[in-house]
Amino acid sequence: MSASKEGPNPLRPYYIPPSVVASAGTPSKSQPPPNLGSKYGYSQSASSQNFGSSARNILADMDYSDYLSDTSPSSTATIKSLAEQALWKYTSVFLAQPFDVAKTVLQVRLPGSGPPPRFRKFKAIQVAPENEIKRVGHRYSSASSENESPPPTYYTRPAPPPPTGLTPPRRPRPRRRPDSPDLDLSSDEDIPPRNTPKPSPHILDIKSESSLTAVLSTLWQKEGAWGIFKGTNSTYVHSILLSTITSFARSFLAAIFAVPDPSLSFQINPPAGSVGGLDILSSPTPMASLAIAVSAAGIAGILLAPLDIARTKLILTPSTHPPRSVISTLKTLSSWTLPLSIAPVTFLHSTLSTFMSASLPLFLRSKLSVDPVVTPTMYDLATFIGQGLELGAKLPIETVLRRGQMHIAQTGLQAGPQNKELQTVVTIGPYKGLIGTMRSIIYEEGERTVKAAPVRNAAAGRTTSLARDPERRKGQGLEGLWRGWRVGMWGLLGVWGAATLGSVGSKGGEF
After folding, report:
1. pLDDT value of position 40
2. In the Cβ-directed half-sphere of 265, how many Cα atoms lie within 13 Å?
C-alpha cells in the first residue's frame, strides 16, 4: 500500500516519504541500456528505470560541502601551506633555542671548572746591599756619639736640649728596570699564578651551577646575540627530519605487520592525552601498535645520531670557532654512523618519551578505569602528571647522552691528521657509560653543602639539640642529574595552558 493514499504513518507522523515518480516533462538524459533480459527469459521493467533515475536525483541534491571540498587544492595553495608550516616551526625553534643552549651547557659542564683564579701583582721589597747597610749604620752611630749631651750639672743653668730624631740620610730610590723580576703593587693588572697553563679565552665564568639566567647572561656578555642562538639551524633540521623519519618508519612497520597505524585516530574527537598524534586506545591491538611506535622512534633516533652530535657540538663550541654550518660540522666527525659507545643511551633517549606518552592512556584505562570520554577532567590531570614523570625520567639520560656526544666529537677531532683540541665554552665532564656517568655526577664531580644533623645533648636532666655547621661533601648529588629541569617544566606548562585555553574557546558555543 502506498503511504500517500493511506495518509501518514501513525508510528512516524513527521516522516514524509520521498517521491520516486519522475516528472513527465523531464526528458531522459541517457538512453536505457539494451534489454538483454529477453535473451534469458525476463525483461527490465519501467519501474526499475524510474527508481534508478530518482535515486540519482536524490544523491545529486545532497550537500557534501561540509565534508568534502568542492575543488582539490592547487599547487600554489599547497606550497603556501607548506611554507607557512615551515615558518611556524622555525619560529618556535628559534624562540626556544636560548633555553635549550643554557640547558645543554649546564648538563655537560664540569662543576668548579671555570677560569683559573687570577692574583694581583705585589710590590717586591727593595733590600739594600750588605755593605750599604754597614756604611749607613756607622754614619748614624758616629753622629750620635758626637752630639751626645754632656753629664748634667746641678749648679749651672742647663743648656737647651740637642735636636732629637737624628736619622740617617735617605738614599734615592732606585728605578725599577724593565727586566726586573720584581712585581709592582701599584699596578691594577691581574696575572695568573706561575707554572699554570694559559687558560682558554672561551671558557665561561658561570657563577651558579643551576641558574639558566646566569648562563644566558654570561653567553651574551662573551659572544653577544650569536652566543644564545647557536645551533638554531641544526636544531630545526633535526626536528623536521626526526618527525618525517618517525612517521615513515611507523607507517612502514604497520603495513608490514598488518597492524593499524598508531598515528591514525579512529575516534571522532581524539583525546588530548594522545601526545605526538598517537592513539592506541582505539587500536584493535594496542600492544602491537605500541611496539611499532617505539620501534619507529628508536630507528629515527639511531639514523639521526650523527646530526644530533653535530648539533650538540655547534652549541658547545664558541660562535667564532669554525666550522659553523651543519654540513661542515658533520664532516669533522670520525664517522656518520652511531658509535657503539653511546648506542644504548641514544636508543633509550629516543624511545623513552614515545613509550611513556603512548602507554600512559592504555595504563589509565585498563588499570585505573580513567577514560578520556567518561572522566575527561581526571584523564587530563593524570596525563599532565604522567608527562611530568616523563620529563623527570628523561633528563638524567639526556645529561649522559650530551656528555657522550661531546666525547665522540672530541675523540674524532683528536684522531684527525692535525690532532687539534676541541675548543668549548665550558669544561666537558667525563663520560663513563650510562651508570658510570651518573655515579660520577652524584659522588665524584664538584662539591655540595649538606646540612648536618643536630647533636642531642642530654644535660641537666633534659635533652637539647645543638646545631652543627653544614658539611662539605664531594659530588653534585642527585640534583646534578636534573640540570635544566625548569626549561622542560616551563614548556610543559605552556603547552598545557595553551591547550586548555584553546579547548575552552572552542566549546564556547556549546551547551
Report:
1. 46
2. 14
